[in-house]
Amino acid sequence: MxxxxxxxxxxxxxxxxxxxxxxxxxxxxxxxxNARGIVVHALTAGxxxxxxxxxxxxxxxxxxxxxxxxxxxxxxxxxxxxxxxxKFSRENGLNFEDCNIMVATGSKQIIAxxxxxxxxxxxxxxLPTPYWAAYTGMIYAAGGVPAYAITSRKNGYxxxxxxLRNSITPKTRWLVxxxxxxxxxxxxxxxxxxxxxxxxxxxxxxxxxxDEIYEKINYSDDHHASIAKTCPALTNRIIIAxxxxxxxxxxxxxxxxxxxxxxIINAMADYQSQTTLGPSSISQAAAAAALNGPTDSLERMVxxxxxxxxxxxxxxxxxxxxHMHSPQGAFYALLDVSDSLNNSMIFRNSQRxxxxxxxxxxxxxxxxxxxxxxxxxxxxxxxxxxxxRETIEKGLCKLIKAVEQI
Length: 406
Fold this sequence. Notes:
The chain has 15 helices and 13 strands.
């Protein structure tokens, strides 16, 4: 009887395409190898290698001692909502009202909430390639279908107005813009966003998800531009997803925030009330301290990432077997190894060249990188430079030798 019950389980069809991230599978394998005493040069992790700044930790301790250990409103405590409002006004020139703001357990939940409350079965979410691998799973889980606007390294991996116009269909419900981006670190300028916004004005039924989680990690001379600021005509159909994980080295605190039209935010809060409720009260207190507090630690982290970005570029420039579009933000570089894989005796007949290459690289050279296919960029691998310089140097040098070997 017990076995028949187990075999009778039916998982919903919308979960068929929702799989555990390749990134986390790789990280788990690296952890297992390290536990066995095997040294791996890991260039996979998508999180800062710094600790949370002390003033943020102190704020969390103070909140706990003051009894801030209970449920908060679903959209977040008044303290953190006001911190988010002030941040948008002070840094982005965006004057929202309280009804436009909510917090969640990471920016990922903001995005998932938005898709969950707006997508009808079969509606499409347009993703410019390369895209953060997690988007597709969230779209499928909400009953939607990912669609793709295919960019290339030759055009800087950027969505153009013409490509955008040609990619929108009657089924398109959302466009996702991620700037600075994961996995290739591109940044859309104010003028580029204005041009995209003009196209979007032609399609009033398309909403825009602006993922700005890497906003602070910017190596360009230009201040971060949000499409909500550059294209005010679109404001009533833009959801901004952001958080404190990347900028303030707070990945483990799981605190994200979002802003957008009050009707969508209210629906997202209703949905969240039936799933996770509000995020951790302690994390909210810490996030308020991060958003309201000093920025010197952030500036030091960004300076370090910039230096490491330059190191990656310097090392990759020593070979003509790997091509890289230099990242302007975030802490990833997307390395194009497609020519080498296509000409390789080992991988040229593989149907999953970059995935097989990444597995081989880890097994034979003890270097961990993330294959590009889950990001919509087959023939590439993503490396993270949110790690120490020695790991970057040794890992990339081994990667170059491996590519030349194949």
